[in-house]
Amino acid sequence: MNKTQKKIIVFLVILLFLTPIGIFLPMVFNAGDAWGEWSAETVETLIGYVPQGLQKYSEIYQAPMPDYTLNTEDSHIEKQSLFYILSGIIGATLSLVITWLISKSIIRK
After folding, report:
1. What are the pLDDT digits (tens) for 36-64?
2. Which segments within 50-107 are labelled E, that is strand?
3. Within a 13 Å sphere around the CA of 63, how many CA atoms are in the beta-carbon half?
4. Cβ contact 22:84 at 8 Å
5. What pLDDT score does 102 carry?
6. Which of 24, 25, 43, 83 has the maximum number of C-beta atoms within 10 A of its C-beta?
7. Is residue 82 scored above 70 in pLDDT?
8. How far apart are the C-alpha atoms of 79 and 97, rounded to whole Å?
């Protein structure tokens, strides 16, 4: 691993541990949900209607970890932060593996 790769990994690890900011900022600014993570109902409240595409596809996909947690009834900020970090680790790992598999497939051909 060269110096640039090490710097990139350190940077990504730092970003990973900064992910709980997404929990704290909406609380600080009394903003409700994190920006862009709105349900169809919230969008309707914010802009007065639900765009057709959002309405059509919002019920099709269900997040594997809704609200970044496995236990939605436990609202302790420490546990929410840990689940938020866990979500980041899972997402980053899946992205890395998928990108690696695609690149290996392309390079092989």
Report:
1. 778 888 889 989 999 998 888 888 877 77
2. none
3. 12
4. yes
5. 92
6. 83
7. yes
8. 27
pLDDT tens-digit profile of 9-19? 899 888 877 87
> What token pair was written down for 59?
């019920």
- Residue 81 neighbours by CB under 8 Å, 6+ apart: 20, 23
Q: How far apart are CA 14 and CA 23, in angstroms?
A: 17
> What tokens appear for 80 in the block?
């929410």
Gap between the Cα atoms of 93 and 72, Å rounded: 23
CB 87, CB 102: distance < 8 Å: no
Cα-flanking dihedrals φ and ψ of residue 72, to 5°? Answer: -70, -15
Does the pLDDT at position 72 exceed 80?
A: no
Q: State the pTM of this model.
A: 0.58
Question: 3-state class of 55 per DSSP?
Answer: helix
Tokens 């730092």 map to which residue? 14
Question: Are the beta carbons of 107 and 100 closer than 8 angstroms?
Answer: no
**Whole-number Cα distances in Å, 49 to 17, 54, 55:** 36, 10, 10
